[in-house]
């Protein structure tokens, strides 16, 4: 079977990570693969912020938890030590789509390197908050950005889940 299709069929969302930080070289490769995602009109309307600083990672987690309405102590990133935040340009008509494709590439790249990942929502709400707009400014990121998602990445703690059977009736052909 083709390696890319095999990865697409085998990659699963991971909900339990070891605390060990992945190698920076692996995270670099994952981010680079994400930035090679297809994008509308070649405008490359998405960016990635790689967060490996534990203090900021934990703040993102806590703010995400609050937005999601979970009780204190819950980690919506499931213990993943690295968070790859994807933002789409509001000034690019395909920014949300471009960012979504980046997220898919990030997760497939992580899987191909033996790492687990999961797409966590609520980046949109986080990056509407003044402190995250300030973070972008502090990083020298200009423009009008919308949070697309967080790709939580790390070493899998336990066995990866198996794929559920695919539902019938989801593909239609016109021949």
Strand pairing plus helix content: what structural class? alpha+beta
> From the coordinates shown, what is the CATH architecture?
3-Layer(aba) Sandwich
| Helix-strand pattern | HHEHEHEHHE
Number of helices: 6
- Average of per-residue pLDDT values: 97
Helix amount: 25-40%
Main sheet specs: 4 strands, antiparallel
- The largest sheet has its strands arranged as 1-2-4-3
The proportion of strand residues reads 15-25%
Parts with pLDDT < 50 across at least 5 consecutive residues: none
CATH superfamily placement: NADH Oxidase
CA(first)-CA(last) distance: 26 Å
The CATH class, by name, is Alpha Beta
Q: Label the overall shape.
A: globular
- The name of the CATH topology is NADH Oxidase
Tell me the total number of β-strands. 4
Radius of gyration: 17 Å
Total domain count: 1
Tell me briefly what this model is.
With 175 residues, the chain is an alpha+beta fold. It contains six helices and four strands, in the order ααβαβαβααβ.
Could you characterize what this model shows?
The chain has one domain (22-154): NADH Oxidase. It is 38% helix and 17% strand. The protein contains 6 helices and 4 strands. It has a 4-stranded antiparallel β-sheet with strand order 1-2-4-3. Helix 2 (24-35) runs antiparallel to helix 4. The longest helix has 18 residues, at 95-112. The chain is globular. The model has no long low-confidence stretch (mean pLDDT 97).
